[in-house]
Amino acid sequence: MKVLGIRFCKVAHADDAKAVADLLGENGLGLSPMDLGQSDGFSGAVFPVDEGAKQGLGSWIELWAAGEQMPEMTMLQIVVDDADAYAERAKKNGLDVKGPDDAHGERIYYLEGAGGLPIAFLSKATT
Q1: 3-class DSSP state for residue 28?
Q2: Confidence band (pLDDT; 50, 70, 90) for 127?
Q3: How many C-beta atoms surround the C-beta of residue 71 within 10 A?
Q4: Residue limits of the VOC domain (predicted)?
């Protein structure tokens, strides 16, 4: 079992999410955001931080504007080589694992960390 990447996801009021994106971006810390296409106003930003992110396996920072379908939250996502194996291990260790969900080509499991931190671990979905 191997960790392939770490993702940080923050959903916040649009002004706050944009402020963090601006801080991380080219006029701040110098990270380059992915092109998410044209949009009116700020809806989100994704900053890949390694080469694996371009294949959907690596690490990145996600910032999204909160809305009706996306409540404010912070989530840690751990990209692994085999989410099913990690889920089995977590369950054997007594963790309350939810899932899997298959979405966006990924197999995703969830659990709640200390202080209520949502944690997801995921891998490429197998066909």
Answers
A1: coil
A2: low
A3: 8
A4: 5-124
